[in-house]
Amino acid sequence: INTNQSLPQYILMNIFLNIVLKHFFKDALRYLKKHQHLNAPLKNRNQKEVVQGKTKTTYVLLSAPWNVLCYYAEEISVRVPLQAVTTPISIWSEKILEKLHIPNIMAQDVPNLPPDYYTCQFRSNKLERFLGHENKDTFFKTTQRHQILYEILARTPYGSLKRGEVGIGRLVSEHVLTAAFPLHEMPKTPVDPQSLNMRQILHHYWARWACWRKYQPLDHIREYFGEKIALYFAWLGKTEHTFNLYQDIKHVNMFNLAGLLFDNGGTVFFSIFMSLWAVTFLEYWKRTSSILSHRWDCSEFEEIEERPRPEFTALAPMTVRNPVTGAEEPYFPETQRLSRTLTGNMVIILMIAIVLIFLIAIILYRTILSIIIYRSQNGFFIFSAGRIASLTGSMLNLLVILLLSRLYTYLAQILTRWEMHRTQTKYEDAFILKVFIFQFVNFYSSPVYIAFFKGRFVGYPGKYNTLLGIRNEDCGASGCLIELAQELLVIMVGKQVISNIQEFVLPEPGLSPWEANYQLLVCEGLFDEYLEMVLQFGFITIFVAACPLAPLFALINNWVEVRLDAQKFVCEYRRPVVERAQDIGIWLTILKFISYLAVITNAFLIAFTSDFLPRLFYRYTTGSMRGYVNFTLSVAPANYTQSHMTCRYRGLKDDKGQPTQDYYHLLAIRLSFVIIFEHVVLLIGRIIDWMVPDIPEEVEIKVKREHYMAKEALAENQRCFSLGAGSVKPPLLTHKSHRLYR
């Protein structure tokens, strides 16, 4: 077991894909025998059987010999070091704080910083050109060995190709094998911080709650978990550091005036601020993403380096030549994929219809519950009937949302796999888009209904509108905005609490490393983590005019989320196989869509749902707010009541139920406000986008410098190889820049 980093070569491979044989032992062994090619690439170095009661678990330790590592490293375009980079470049914020003699409380000195190298794609015939080629035990990094061995396991068929019997992933999903994963680095007793292994460093300097105000060691995260996970934490850290403001609004009085907490003049400016913050945050992230992708050698990953998915390779009916690389690659006809995509869209529409049916059911539930409470003759419950119905309806809606989310995510996985996307990036983008469209409707349909439809189609006394024979519900005395704020808080905070409550399964002491790792939780990927944060981003931008407190809850949740996720990945999850990534994928496009939608939504919320414009209009026309409540109330038709009492209801209508002249004046003001608000905010956003380039100037200079160095290296290599290597192409240099903690 790799405990002291100095074991023989076959253990130093550190590829521990622990295959637990459960139901079909013979089928699993037959699958393993399928890999006996290329001088036995997968060698069974160790096999252990653990018996607990009536259950026997078999652990198989797999590793790969040097020649197989070299073959697949070239096959999957592994990047290896060519020359160490010795030029340090400091961070601009640290320079400013240093000049101002201000201590940087977020900085920390993390030991064993991963070194920077000039790198290029591995070529077996140029092995001697690469740094560290003399030591075969340490030439390939641990994470690269994980990638190579999992590539072999994932692409090998074990049965009929027509039935899709390919790869270890399907065997695990069908319970032929119960798990396949690399082992975590095992803890050791350090003499000093420099002797800590990478997992211990991440635990001490990142995953502990005491590190909540420190920069994340992104280089170390990337070294241990890979670029994809490191990019997620970099993005999550940006949401934590850039979003640290919210508006503290103080008001007197409590409940009937509670709407003033969210419905006041400051809400307009806060909505503008949040809309501009969303645009600025995305621009800031695009710059950071370009720096990290260039620094981690992933800037051309999707266009050139990314290989077809193993399942796609095995199931594609034909091959074509890649126009970029010139290599023969599997191909699936676009017409067939289009037809399958359209079928998947029909399922999305069906599920959205189900969401709307549940929304109508919850609306009817609130109305019926209010009627039952009013007829209960209990004074306390009658006084709070609307509030009780609204709150219980919000909680019931949250339960429905979570149940439908699980069902549709499962369906989306099946549909996306059926669509046969070529690369993992395209597969994930298609899956994310399907789920997000559904979740967008699932999570936001109820708030949208309360914001823009509830109370709009009630009618007036004597002529009330009905839904399925039941009178349409109206907003409470404090208005629809306070009910919208309540709905947002129940859904947003409720989902955050439920998502963060995890059942952590800790390994028992005294177990072997493979047993201890097997008892850890399965890492399901980053989809749920991204989805939670993106939905939260929607809540704090789309509906911020209704609930200015939402950003505060989001900030607290982000502080918790960074450390909670760090602790899960380091301590509670099995170690995932490293995946490379160029950026956060389609999530960035979704965030842009949400930021633009937020501008329009907040404009309509302020104009049509809040009382900000009616109060402003009344003050302008009368000079004071005296009599404003009577201005907002209309008189019911004379034939509505049989007594001489006057019945008043909310609305700007005459005694016949028709809109008054003030209604049309106010409507024109509202529409004008929407147009002005939208154009001003979007114009400022475009100016910010124009002023802040996506790629920093320093990165562009580095790219030009790298191209120059590549030409120099090409000329030098041609002279060097002309004596013996003939026309072998030299490696292409790329540069990895300085460390960065964010």
Low-confidence stretches: 1-44, 244-259, 502-507, 717-742
| Ends apart, CA distance between termini | 34 Å
* Mean pLDDT value: 76
Largest sheet: 3 strands, antiparallel
Question: Which strand-content bin applies to the residues?
Answer: 5-15%
Number of helices: 25
Radius of gyration: 31 Å
The 3D shape can be described as elongated
Number of separate strands: 13
Helix content: 40-55%
- Find the structural class using helix and strand composition: mainly alpha
Which assembly state applies to the chains in this document?
single chain
User: Strand sequence of the main sheet, in spatial order?
Assistant: 3-4-13
Keywords: Cell membrane, Glycoprotein, Membrane, Transmembrane, Transmembrane helix
Membrane topology: Multi-pass membrane protein
Family: Belongs to the anoctamin family.
Protein name: Anoctamin
What does this structure look like?
It is found in: Cell membrane; Membrane. One of its GO terms (cellular component) is plasma membrane. With 742 residues, the protein is mainly α. Helix content is 54%, strand content 7%. It is built from 25 helices and 13 strands. The strands form 6 sheets. Strands 3-4-13 form a 3-stranded antiparallel β-sheet. The protein starts with 8 loop residues before the first helix and ends in a 7-residue tail after the last strand. Mean pLDDT is 76; it is low at 1-44, 244-259, 502-507 and 717-742.
